[in-house]
Queue: 2 jobs
Job 1
Amino acid sequence: MNLYEAGDHAELRILLITGGWEVRRSFNQMGIQPGDRVRVLRRAPFGGPLEIDNQGTHVAVGKQLAEKIRVEVLP
Amino acid sequence: MKVALVGQPNSGKSTLFNAVAGYRSLTSNFAGTTVEYTHGEARVAGEVLELIDLPGLYSLSPTSPVEEVSRDYLLAGDWDVIVNVLDASQLARSLELTLELLDLESPLVVCLNMMDEAARKGMTIDTRALEIALGVPVVEAIAARGRGIIETFRTAQDVASGGGRPHAFVYAPEAEGILEHLAEKIAESTLECGGSTPPMKKAQRERGVELLPQSKAPEESGVEPPHSKVLRTSPCAAGHCSSACCGHAPEVKGRPSPRVSASVAVLPVLAPAISSTDLQAVGAHSPLTHHQSQIAAFPPPRFRALQLVQSEPRQTPKVKGAEDAGLQSPDPGPSFVEWAQAEIVVRTGQPADAAISSARHAACLTLFERVAHVARPRADWREQVDRLAMHPVWGYAVLMGVFLGFFRLIFDVGKLGEDRILNLFDALVAALAQHMNAQGAAFAAAKGAVLGTAGAVAIVLPYLLPFLVGLAILEDIGYLSRVGYLMDAAMHRLGLHGTATLPILVGYGCSVPAVMATRILSTRRDRFIAAFLAVLVPCSARMTVIFALVGFYLGANYALGIYALNILVVAVAGHLLALIWPEISPGMLMEVPAYRVPAPRVVALKTWWRLREFVLMAFPLLVVGSVVLSLVDFYGWQHGINAALSPLTALLGLPRSVGLTLIFGVLRKELSLLMLMQALGTTHVLGVMTAAQILIFTLFVTFYLPCMATLASMMRELGWRLTLAASTALLAIAVVISLAARGLMLLL
């Protein structure tokens, strides 16, 4: 499951960031890495970005990028 | 003593800077770039500190030109101590930059800012434990309330003058051996530098010698290391040069451009060229470093090894730009960096950059858990605000409300001021007429200069200034990030991301700072499209034309109709551009900062930076344009110009006499109105032109070429090819729209 498909407000864990060097670098800049626990706070309509909470930092992630993050739902 | 303030965006770095350096601060461009930084002086404990406030930086692996320049500045080493400002409420993430700064093994102070915000989030931070873990002093601060600021700078003084250098933080044990090996290789080539002929291409060697006359290693020649002046005057040593200047810069910086991928491969060959710069940098960096270790290079070899292994893996043997930079070695052979990257992949099962950054990330989290305790956060009203402001339906209603109110307010404020200012200057012209020969060319020129100044002032003070202040406030509150979030989907239709909303919004004020604001975008393509659309949007000068002509003679609804039509044209143009130049940038990834009360000083400075672009670039052009215009009128040259433009005016069905107006609209947009009245010889335009002609004229003026000042800034930011392409496209759009309007009106 990728981040964009994940339900709102669920506790998620990032498993893998697919995508190339540039994508990894962008996520690294925002402090988002595999292993992080994140939560989708809300999503903008019309295929807009998600707002996620990563340890208190709120980050807007565009659809294309969110689809590059593989996540699992934490119990 | 030079203090560099480094921090992630929204860390309150500028608040700290402004609290001590305040309005005596200056903005300057980084050498050879248009990116600005602020610097100023502050007296702390009897010593004058030179403070440099670098643009916000998430990490030392930049993704935008602004970040790249900040990073380059840091790596040039032209400072004595770094003050790393952190948002304590975002400690875990903020520490990532701190760990990277520790890799520089240079005097460093950590300022834990926004401690109040952290407390609100239920965080308690053991500062002492953090200090021990990092090995550098940590000072708590609430810069917005003036707390901890002096302590921060005092500590910085102590660290710079007395203490030793911190040690790099080892966070990736699996990679450490490889890094060490690579660092050794880099250090070795540094030592070899002064001695035998380095094994590099002849062209490079010659260029290196030519450009670096001081390249003799200081410890070998027995002279004192060059003073820091060398660093400031030598473009190479300052680290700003591109490969066009000398071959070594990209290697030093590990720049993530395609050019680097090629240069990385030839690092062992070029390494000696790096070293000479580094040795200068060491001397310049600080006397302390020099005394401690004669050969300590800056940036340290381990740091450079880190940057190199994190650089983009080489994909193709030949990369565009490599040849002309002279970086392609005749036989690259097995590269050391490639070996290191491959080895890290083998050991960690991840690409080298991911291995390093995830290890650093993990180290930050561990560190965070050790020094911080998070209790239940206090209920935060700001969450409730976001529920509304970022709501999929109500969010857009709020957005509309905010911007309609915003523009309404500016228009009302502007109207109040404009007339008074214009009257004032009219009186000045009348006074001039009494003291000068009203028939002479000198009077014509003087009148042009006064009216030019009047036009500029009447735009800047009443419209642009409130616009920029309002925008800076919205930005500082944190609302513009929400706008970016809400508008991302719509901006995708224009081939852009939500991040590009800011330049386009600034475009409603003045195109010049709008073009400058495109720098925050990461790719050249995004910058071009954003600049093009920002220029297409009617600036405040064009707004005065729209409202004074169409608004006045045809009614406010027509004026608003032009704005609506403009939005439509922006949408279509963006869509077409996105088709012509398909998207390659990865998408929006933007921090959504917590709402904050804007700091008046930061708002004032931000406004000033943007206004400055107008004052410095547009103002002189406006005045000169106006003088030329007056002289053209005086010598009666307008007939020739009107004749030359008659095909266009005839095509649009406009009076022949407005031809000159169109030419000079390029010099000064808002002058189109004044000129029109001058050309027609009346202030009652409707008596000479039909309503349809007024509409067509205004449409044409709204869309056609941007003013000279905007063209000049586009040239700086985008280069002349793209500027030319954009201008041609704008002219075509204006003609098509005006013709369509004419056809439509003929039909009706």
Job 2
Amino acid sequence: MTARSSTRTNSALLVALLAAQLLLMTLSTQREDGANVLESAVLRLTSPFARLAAAVGGGFSSAAESVRSTFAAKAENRRLERELRQASERETALREAELENVRLRRLLGMRQSLAPKSIGARVVTASLTGQSRMMVLDRGTADGVNVDCGVVAWGGAVGRVVYADARFCKVVLLTDPNSGVAGVIQRSRAKGIVKGQGDGPLVMEYVSDYADVLLGDHVVTSGLDGIFPPGYTIGRVSYVASGEDVSKVIRILPAVRYRDLEEVLVLTEPPGEGLLPPPAVESDR
Amino acid sequence: MSVVRAAALLLACLGLQVGLVRLAPTSPRYVDFLVLPVLWYGIRSSQRSAMLVGCAGGLLRDAWFSAGVLGLNGFTKTFLGWVLGGLGARVDLNSGGTRLVVAAAFSVSQSALDLGLRRLLDRVTTSPDPVEWAVRAVTAGLLVAVGFPILDRVMGTAAGRSAR
């Protein structure tokens, strides 16, 4: 009797939990506030642990780099082993700072030349699976980051903000299967839509079969999507062929190495160029 | 189920997952630390605990490692927690070899459910990668092999299987 009532209770709980998750999925795909509030609460509540873990992980990463450097130094000169170990610890910290300096300087240079209204952000965590490619950044609405802001890095376009909390934002990368960006072949100005394929290369669709596209052509953002300003590198054409319909089949190798990203720039103001003006409201008279 | 212990276990797994990403950025593809609490509660505790931990763990995974669809991972982990808890109440899943098989089966089922739900939601998906699924299943088995003895020490016998 007890076991039967327990089974019944568990089944009811299962149905309730699954229904709640289904509702969440529906709300989140429609970008409704309910899902955002819950997501924001989960992120805020757990962010101290995640930040701590990210810092510890970063420390281990630096330590691993340090150990590697020390062993290389040992092989070269065993006599200076002790001094080298001490030096390598200091060096690791300096090297990290130097590399960061170089990256930030590059970003600053790009920011001055291409993205005047932008903000630097650090990658807190990322997921680079076949079905979903995203990253979480440590900037949010409090810093001027909003949904649909473009994200760029040294090398070119990275992705688009799909969720923004006060302190965090989530970015869907160009390689995500549900991602799309307006692109143009830099040499011939043939326009199309660049879509992600998860692990595979990017694909460029809706390019006329008569368009002039060659292997190795650079593909840049066209600015027509209203997310990226024109001119950010997307990648290089690695395959081009005539398609079955009137479009060419174009594959693109992305310019940005997503797995190496640590800092990025978020474009806090979407470009106005290329957008159609809103339709004028016709008067009844 | 002690709520505090379950929350601590979930947060520890989240921490491990985030920390691992800093060391190996592609790790979430092959390793999901948040399956460990569901497997632990499913095998060692009650069906209800497994469902609730699955729901919370899935939500954490969705919030930190997924963009676009909140609740997808929670759905799969809740459902599989229910299946595992129900199975655990009828069959002894607690031996070493069985646990490995269960963990691998859990991982593969989770991948399949995730893909199916994405397609049902009309999301663009890529074709499943059998190697990725296999590696994920093996790492889930390894997680259980390494994680259960540690959890036995940390969590003690408090999570002993109950009639519920």
